[in-house]
Amino acid sequence: MAQGTDFILQALAAEGLGHLFMVPGGLVDPFLPAIGRQRGLTPIVAAHEGGAAYMADGYGRASGRFGAVLGIGGPGLTNMATAIAAAKTDSAPVLVLSGEVARAMEGLGAFQDASQATLDDTAVMKPLTRLSATVAEAENLNHWLRHALTTMLSRPRGPVHLSLTRDALVDDCSASYVPVSPFFAGDAPLSLPQAEAALATLTAAKDGRGLRIVCLAGAGVADPASAAALKTVAEGWAMPVATTLRAKDVFPEDHPLSLGVFGYAGTRHATAAVFADDLDVLLVLGSGLNERDTMHWTLRERTKAVMIHVNTDMDELTAHGQAAHAVPGGAGAFLRLMAERLDAGPAASAAQAERRAWVDRIKAGRRLYDTENCARETRPIHPAAAVTALRKAFPRGGIVLVDSGAHRAFMGHYWTAYEPGTYVSATNLGPMGWAIPAAVGVQCARTDCRVAVVTGDGCMHMHGIEIQTAARHRLPIVYVVLNNAALGNVWLRAHQEGPVPAALTSLPDHDWAGFARSLGAEGFTVDDPAALEETFQKALACGTTAVVDVKADKDCPTPVYDFSAGAKAWSYHE
Questions:
Q1: Residue 71's beta-bridge partner residues?
Q2: Coil/strand/helix, residue 486
Q3: Does the pTM exceed 0.85?
Q4: Are the C-beta atoms of 358 and 257 separated by less than 8 Å?
């Protein structure tokens, strides 16, 4: 037999986890000696429960497994609420474990009691998770843990929460744990009748020629196997690929068939291809059709093409698709079916040649906006110049995390992503400061990769303290703070409304390099664009956590021109 805490830790290690992100507290005290009794999990103690949950989110995204976060119930759990909501909107697998008072103490006024007799932690978390439940006894741990992980890993994925009473933590559990994750190692299932109908559409001819097809790839293609299948199919079919911002890295952006990002911060090439009058089929793989990924919902109104939508989320399919062209199932499985059906005959070769010529015409124009800003030499530093210099200094296979703010637009537009899994961002709910702690989880999961964060000073105000967590564990993360002394995106709107809105969205110009040094990290300040690349190289070479405080210009319009035009043209009432 094992104590409940030992059973849980052994189960997480059996599922392949190497780290547990946590904030200690009275309601989880039994875990502390249990962590000392095992060797499978490395504990990472965060400064704040929200930061710990963001770390677990980053770990899950980078590891291909899931992340686990531990904290007390009540205030500890409510501190995690935004992080868990962000994980749900991005379908990120996170296991949330919270401690609770003993059953005999429920409702008696015990300190931090948030059981079902008081605040009811499980009810608080239900809207933010796929499952939220109380485990009252240690003998129920095996059932509830396996049930929670099954729910978390089923499509669409998302966070789950277990509230653990003290009884469940300290009493003995006699069960032998069998891992759940091997059940989810393959492709998500695919509905073959709908897939066959979609393939018939894709292989049809029009006016004696093969159809012009553009793929819009979303997060459902983000796993390495699906991304590899996408590259194979794109090359075999001569099919150009645009991506959503969240899936920016699923197709090499220096590939001849890459159109870049479509939607928010998207490229001219992607906009031109998706909205081309002579496009026949738009193949949407593994993407929800939200505001930013559809050019403010203008996609269905403006595209002239037949849309085929492949997704594991039936809510997305029924909300946005037509039954005749909706394919329930995994994008990876559909891509492998496309690869199997690739025709190598003369007609297919002619269709591929015609598609390549069409892509060449689309890509003859400029790809990006305002490219002169990438080499701007004036001070304060233009964000595009900082992004360009970081791309030059950063390894091709390194992982960059992008936070929420104006810097998201500059990174989405000017950064070039070369490999799957190298561009990570919480793009749906988009909480500020997410990337700062999430990078800790990413670096723990991918010790073989360099990790960098591009964030802003507004984000640093919210979660910059987690840099001390990275520094304490000597994680070689480079944090690039585009410090424009403002809440950038908000300031760009607000300052046009007068001095009071401008003042309310301005911030002090803090010394973030000095802040980093006070937390045990290295700190660099750069205010000369000519020194950017050299400074980034120094930060990368220092061997520990480093912060680069880039004195940036706030008065720089973000390169979201196509998206803004779509927003102005679209009306809910039309």
A1: 98
A2: strand
A3: yes
A4: no
